[in-house]
Write a structure and sequence with these properties.
The protein is built from seven helices and 13 strands. It is 32% helix and 31% strand. Strands 8, 9, 10, 11, 12 and 13 form a six-stranded antiparallel sheet that branches. A five-stranded antiparallel sheet has the order 1-2-3-7-6. With 246 residues, the protein is of the alpha+beta class. The longest helix is centred in the middle third of the chain and has 23 residues. It starts with 5 loop residues before the first strand and ends with a helix. The structure holds cytidine-5'-diphosphate.
């Protein structure tokens, strides 16, 4: 890595300029936050687990036909990725009602959504990520109608790919959040990360939570075990060799 020039510091990742102009180096940290960053703890091994899980999930999504930012996982915690012009929209896909949607609307907890529900929130901490609609997004100038339609189409495709991927390892994909950006030609690319930090994952048999919700509920001592469970089910020995993990 040349200059280690920090471009952006997020809540759980730091983004540095890459060797090439159009590349970035993303470092996954162990930090975990909840409540708009009101609570912050360091969770041992989280950066390691999430970086490898994210690389593996992005590979599977690419195989499914959706372009991602991933170029390569250089080593655990360190990912080379395409530099993107980030679209400040959190695209949330829900297969089952829980979390903020049941606090805001009269859906009963654990009601399945058929078809899945796509929600877009404005990514802005100052305004606490308010829910968008197409007109508001266009008026804010953050996306065109064509781009909004594309985000929705891609998010549903990612949902189908991930639902199957998790089902195969005995996990229900309840909901998740993804972010997109544009490459230098204006193509919309899946960016940021996908990991147990950004998904709700339930064990298919026990319905035990295997994601960040444990942290939101203050069960800090269960978080890393849950992430490890997802890791052990998804990352094969072959993957471990590829990602240079002992
Ligand atoms: O209940 P909560 O306020 O955490 O959020 P939600 O809207 O129910 O979250 C839906 C899904 O998006 C969950 O899988 C969250 O983990 C994820 N999410 C996220 O990763 N980052 C956010 N800023 C908001 C939601």
């Amino acid at each position: 890595m040349n200059s280690e020039k920090l471009l952006y510091e997020g809540k759980a990742k730091s983004v540095f300029q890459g060797e090439k102009d159009d590349e970035v180096i993303i470092k996954f940290r162990d930090d975990m936050t909840a409540g708009d960053g009101a609570r912050k703890e360091s969770m041992g091994q989280k950066g390691y687990l999430n970086s490898i899980l994210c690389a593996k999930i992005f590979e599977i999504i690419e195989e499914g036909g959706v372009k991602t930012q991933l170029i390569e996982l250089n080593e655990p915690c360190v990912m080379t990725a395409m530099k993107l012009d980030v679209i400040p929209i959190e695209v949330i896909v829900r297969n089952i009602a829980t979390g903020s949607i049941i606090r805001k609307f009269p859906f009963e907890d654990k009601t399945p959504f058929n078809p899945p529900l796509v929600q877009m929130d404005f990514k802005d901490d100052e305004f606490h990520d308010p829910m968008l609609n197409d007109d508001i997004a266009k008026a804010l100038g953050i996306a065109t109608q064509e781009e909004l339609d594309k985000l929705r189409e891609l998010a549903l495709k990612v949902n189908e790919i991930m639902k199957k991927m998790f089902k195969d390892i005995g996990i229900i994909l309840v909901d998740f959040k993804i972010e997109f950006g544009k490459d230098k030609d204006g193509n919309i690319i899946l960016g940021d990360e996908i990991s147990p930090d950004s998904c709700r994952l339930w064990d298919s048999e026990t319905l035990d939570m295997l994601d960040k919700e444990l942290f939101r509920q203050g069960k800090d001592d269960e978080v890393i075990d849950a992430y490890e469970e997802v890791f052990n089910r998804l990352v094969s020995d072959e993957d471990k060799a590829k990602f240079s993990i002992q």
